[in-house]
From TrEMBL:
SUPFAM superfamilies: Fumarate reductase respiratory complex transmembrane subunits. It comes from Xylanimonas protaetiae. Its main location: membrane. Membrane-anchoring subunit of succinate dehydrogenase (SDH). The gene is sdhD. GO terms for cellular component: plasma membrane. It is a multi-pass membrane protein. This is Succinate dehydrogenase hydrophobic membrane anchor subunit. Its cofactor is heme. Gene3D superfamilies: Fumarate reductase/succinate dehydrogenase, transmembrane subunit (1.20.1300.10). The chain crosses the membrane at residues 23-46, 105-129. GO terms for molecular function: electron transfer activity; heme binding; metal ion binding.
Length: 148
């Protein structure tokens, strides 16, 4: 017969740690979740509720938004916070459900690789986006692009 610990006994930590990483991770998830709500609903409102709604979203719409720094920073914050928030959540799930150390290592390596690829490519797109690409037809370009 196996003895079961008293459920009302205080929790005793098995391994002493000197890091508060999990605490800071938990606090980040709460703060980034609130900030992401503001960023995402602001993004949806501007893209879907103003103007003609979803029918007005095209290359010229995005080029007009990204012509100034405000929307670039907005979208960059949204990308980075969403990716860090999601990666942290999946990391927690991997820690909870992957029982073997090797499996946990491989899953986390794949997760961090995917995070890095998406963040680097997304950041490059935001900062290297050219609203007036050469060779594009004038009817697809925003009004501030010079005529070719």
């Amino acid at each position: 017969m196996t003895a079961v610990d008293n459920p009302r006994a205080p929790y005793v930590r098995q391994k002493a740690t000197r890091s508060n990483y999990e605490l800071y991770s938990w606090m980040f998830m709460r703060a980034s979740g609130v900030l992401l709500l503001v960023l995402i609903f602001g993004h949806l409102f501007v893209n879907l509720m103003t103007g003609e709604g979803v029918h007005s979203i095209d290359f010229a719409f995005v080029a007009g938004k990204w012509a100034g720094p405000f929307w670039k920073v907005w979208d960059l914050l949204m990308l980075w916070l969403a990716m860090i928030h999601g990666t942290n959540g999946v990391r927690t799930i991997i820690n909870d459900y992957a029982s073997k150390d090797g499996t946990r290592l491989v899953l986390k390596a794949l997760l961090y690789l995917a995070f890095t690829i998406v963040v680097v490519l997304g950041t490059l797109v935001i900062f290297t986006f050219d609203p007036c690409p050469p060779g594009a037809t004038q009817d697809l370009l925003p009004s501030f692009c010079p005529a070719v």
